[in-house]
Amino acid sequence: MAATGVDSPGRAQIGLKTARTDRWWLAPLRIGVVLAFFVIYATVRIFMNKWYWVDAYHYLTPLYSPCVTSSCVEGSSHLGTWFGNFPRFLPFSLITFVILAGFRGTCYYYRKAGYRSLFFAPAACAVPEPHKSYTGESKFPLVTLNLHRYFFYGALVFGLLNIYDGIQAFHGKDGGFGIGLGTLIIWINLVALWLYTLSCHACRHIVGGRLKNFSKHPLRYRYWTFVSKLNPRHGTFAMTSLFTVIFTDAYIMALSAGWFSDLRFIN
Hints:
By secondary structure, the chain is mostly helical. It is built from eight helices and four strands. 49% of the residues lie in helices and 3% in strands.
């Protein structure tokens, strides 16, 4: 079988894997560990089907929002129950997982991070990849990555739901207004999620990418300019929001499980 890729007959035959002497493997390794940890953590959490709601302060973890089945604990279904009881093996947050995992999984930044850190395609510049051929994203399953803009619309809806959850978190123990550490954590996560969502390349294209004359669309031009300023930091927002989601979920899980109490500032 004829060699392909960097070993094909038409390419210079170099015995070294790479001539790079720096620690090129550190960046893909670091990102790969973060991505793998998030995937494992999120998978375990959504299948736990518990410890996602703190009734005293109306804290709902973003991994389970919205909780719309009859299986959800009392008080956590802010939008009502759309479905009956789920079997124990089916995550209550199935809709959330499909939409948000689809949005992040098809994201341009995560595609780059996944290719380099998980599939080594390639792991770094001037480092040959182990794959024998290259087909891009023209065949299944990678062709489904082109659904990113549609997942973006779903992420916008869930972002609005998260804002509603954040407003609900201003709930005191006696039923009035209150602020706790959990409230602040939820809103910090909200800011991180919206920065990630609004800095998305699909968002930039939707608000102004197809316009031929900005002067005829001044409002959309302002939106496009705003998103364009955020877009260069999209990768930073993407990784930051991973950590804020995990931390928010872990904090609410700990409160729900009774491991410790919420630090209250007001009521």
